[in-house]
Amino acid sequence: MKMDTPADIKRMKSSLLSNIRRSAYVYRVDCGGCNGCEIEIFAAITPIFDAERFGIKVVASPRHADILLFTGAVTRAMRMPALRAYEAAPDPKIVVSYGACGCSGGIFHDLYCVWGGTDQVVPVDVYIPGCPPTPPATIYGFAVALGLLDQKLKAKTHIEGEGEQAGIAHPAVPYNVRIHIEREARRMAGYRQGRDIADRFLGMLQIPGDLPLQQRVETFAAAETDPRLAEIYLQIGETLQHPELRP
């Protein structure tokens, strides 16, 4: 039987999220996992990722916990210990379901000895999916649980209209030229930065003007304050001197 959160506890929890001004204490409850999630949790609290810099600390008793972290699929043997840990934690408390097994039961969801995910036993506030979740995902999930990110997740649905087509970036530049510029920029600056550099360069090409291509590129590069970007712009401009690539 799943437990529900009373309305007054929900109000207290909301107050905790908005007014917390101290470290958050986490108690881990292993409901029947393979210990893969535990390894990642321990990695998240090592000096490399240093979850304590956000005020996230692990405690040895649920009576001291603000956050209950449930891992593994809930087995029949661990159902009552999980409920006792939930009851022992003082209100208001935040429940985090960790890993694929904690979120849904994982690959063990249909075993005779498994109840399912954490939400089949206690009310869950935050889900951290993954098999197992990475330490950065773990810290991000804690931040969401504590409201540190102050984010608002809103679903957006787009219904494509009849005859509607996706817009093409920089349509005035020939397709083969766009592809060439993006490849060259990513080759010299990496995938993410290369895309940004290519977008700026293509935007320059779309600006109407009577100057020759080489002079336009040199003027564009001269206006760049970062000499590394200026050099990339000049090199891309040199590759466009091939007759087949002139925009």
Q: How much of the sequence is in beta strands?
A: 5-15%
**Treating each run of at least 4 consecutive H or I residues as one helix, how many helices?**
9
CATH architecture of the largest domain: 3-Layer(aba) Sandwich
Lateral strand order in the biggest sheet? 2-1-3-5-7
Radius of gyration: 27 Å
In total, how many domains does the architecture comprise? 2
**Alpha-carbon distance between the two ends:** 67 Å
How is this structure best described in words?
The protein is α/β, with parallel strands linked by helices. The chain has two domains: 7-146, Rossmann fold (3-Layer(aba) Sandwich), CATH 3.40.50.12280; 175-242, no CATH class. It has helices at residues 7-19, 36-44, 76-88, 99-104, 135-146, 175-189, 191-206, 213-222, 227-239, and strands spanning 24-30, 56-58, 67-71, 74-75, 94-98, 114-116, 126-128. The N and C termini lie far apart (67 Å). This is NADH:ubiquinone oxidoreductase-like 20kDa subunit domain-containing protein. Residues 34-142 form the NADH:ubiquinone oxidoreductase-like 20kDa subunit domain. Keywords: 4Fe-4S, Cell membrane, Iron, Iron-sulfur, Membrane, Metal-binding. GO terms for molecular function: 4 iron, 4 sulfur cluster binding; metal ion binding.
